[in-house]
Structures are given as structure tokens and as C-alpha cells.
Fold:
Amino acid sequence: MPYFSRFTKAIIPLASLALIACGEGGTTSEPHLIHQFGGWHREEDRHFRICTVCGEKEEGAHQGGVCEVCAEFKALGLGFIEGGDGAHADFAQEANEWFPKMGKENGFLYDFSTDFGMLNEETLEDYDLVMFLNNLPYVESQRHAFEEYMENGGAWMGFHVCAFTTEASSWSWYHENFLGTGNYRTNTWNPTAERLKVETHDHPATKFLGDSIMSSPNEWYGWENDLRENEDIQILLSLDDSMEDSTFPIGDRVGEIWDSGYWPVAWTNKNYNMIYMNMGHNLMPYNDFEKYSRTFSSEEENEFIIEGMFGIANRR
Structure:
């Protein structure tokens, strides 16, 4: 069986690796078959990691604080940054500033494309995580490639309008089986920041959160299907009027206010490495498109996103 060294991008037959005392220059001469490296230490122009058995150092040069060699995972964001709904485009623009910054701080790589043609078998092999920022694929071959990617252990995070549809049957695998939502049913307006209930701490995205968090401003969606009745769905965050610190009513424009109720806003399908979260619509009036809020303004919500990314990419 071969041993794959990610650092050297080389495949080394295990038969050629003898039990050796590889502690020369290290802290011990304990024999071991292969190095047992700890995590990467990253600087702006270099990276290194150290074998926990013998102290051997593996290092290399890069630029920008993280590279293909030392990245914890590689993510691909898909969506549009101009045209369409202005607030949805604005979210993608904001995401394309925030995710590279978080990648540099946390050790992952982020690419973005407006081309959903990237959803093909060859391209998807290069990514540990796919993100739908403000759109979804409509071409059958792209949908099929995404389904195959997810069915074979790929990871996905989706935001806000990527779940929107009034014709769930047009892609029933995605809207009914994968997301579980069915059709869009209702929304609040204007975008408002709300207190969210943390439904479980037994998930990487929520394990470090308190029992509730404050969101960034958002337009909140309601769905045709009751996700609480779906045994495949684990709700992670919700708007719940039974919380002591509930911020109901939700919204502030007559006719688009939720006075009470229970509304899931982030969840996972237990059959897949995925998280959908309703966030992704800033407060941006359609008469002037002036930006009054930022989606990544809530530190608690940001923690949910980052820990969730690492969790579903199977790295934490």
C-alpha cells in the first residue's frame, strides 16, 4: 500500500520505508515507520511542521501565509457578483473579501468563480468544499456532477437564496432530499439582526457557541416543509419565540413580519457533509442600494461559519 506525502506530492511505496531511528538532530531516536507530523506552522513566506516522535522538521517556502501544500482544505465559492438581485450580488462581493482573509488567518484556500461549469468531475476533485453563495446550477450536467460529488463524500455550504425555489420538483434531489425545504413559502422584511437559538452543541459548527447567538442583519426565509419532521435533518440554529431572550417579532415592514413561531435558519442533512444557512442578505433598500449592514459583522455567526467549514471538510 503506498504512502502519500502531501508535502512532496510524491507517492512512496511503504515497502521501501524501513523502521528507522530517524531522530538524528531531533529529540529522540525512537524507531518509527513514518513521521508523525503535527499541524502546520505558517508565516507569510514559509511553513513548517515537526514530527512529534523525533522532532524532524519539514518546511517549505510560499507567499501569502498559506499555499497548496500547507492548506487545511481548499474551498470553491460559486455565484454572481453583478447583475441579478443587487443585495445578493453584494453578499458575494463581501464574501469574496472575507473568505480569503479568513483563509489566511485559519489556513485554508478559497477560490471563486461565476461559472457553475466548474461543477464537473475533474474540477471538483481539486476541492474539499463547495459553496453556493447566491445561486445554484441550472444545467443538468452540472447538477449531476454536484450530486455525484456530494454522494461520494464532498462537502458543501450554502447561503440564503441558493435554496430559493417555487418549483422544487425541477430539482427534487436538491430541494426535497438534500435541503429538505421544498418550496419557498414566506420571508421577513426589512433585513434585521435577531437572537438565534443554538439547537445542538453536538456539531462542529456549534460546539463552541453558547445557547443563543446574535445574528447579523438578514432577510429570513420560511419553507414549505417542516424540517422538524425530517429525520435526516439536524437543525443547528433557529428563530424560536419560546426563548427567554427571543427578539420576536421578526422584520419591521407591515405584511412581512413574523409575530411568533418556530423557524429553522441553519441545518445539516445527516447523510451528507453539508450546512445550509439562511444568512446572506444585507440591509440594502432597493430604491438606492445603499449598504446599511454587513453579513460578516457578527463574531458569533462568523465562528459558526468557520467552525462549520472545518467540520464538514473533515479537518476538525
Summary: The helical segments are 86-106, 121-124, 140-151, 172-178, 299-312. The two ends are 26 Å apart (CA to CA).
